Amino acid sequence: MTPAYDFKQAGDAYGLEVFVPGVAKDAVEIHIEQGELVITARRNWKAPEGWTELFRETADADYRLRVELNDTVDADKINAELEHGVLRVT
Question: N or C, which terminus of the chain has less Cβ within 10 Å?
């Protein structure tokens, strides 16, 4: 599924906020492919040890987002951080 996202610009920097609730940091992959920034993420949930799942409304999810980069983007300076279900890429 394509996650919800916001795209912003400040001066010569670009910012992308991708909303991926429940995704762990080690379940996110970011790379450049044919001039596009490609973000993939997977949300897997399981009950903590000692707990039994009785009901669940949320589902596991595979997220994929492709954003075309322009020629001014320096791929070596791309930075990302994931906090509280929001992946911020600058």
Answer: N
Q: What's this model's pTM, rounded to 2 decimal places?
A: 0.85
- Contact yes or no for 1/20 (Cβ under 8 A): no
> What are the tokens at 22?
């429940």
Do the Cβ atoms of 74 and 14 come closer than 8 Å? no
How does the average pLDDT of the chain come out, rounded? 93
Q: What is the DSSP annotation of 1-59?
A: -PPEEEEEEETTEEEEEEE-TT--GGGEEEEEETTEEEEEEEE---PPTT---------
Cβ-proximal residues to 86 (8 Å cutoff; 6+ apart), any chain:
17, 18, 19, 20
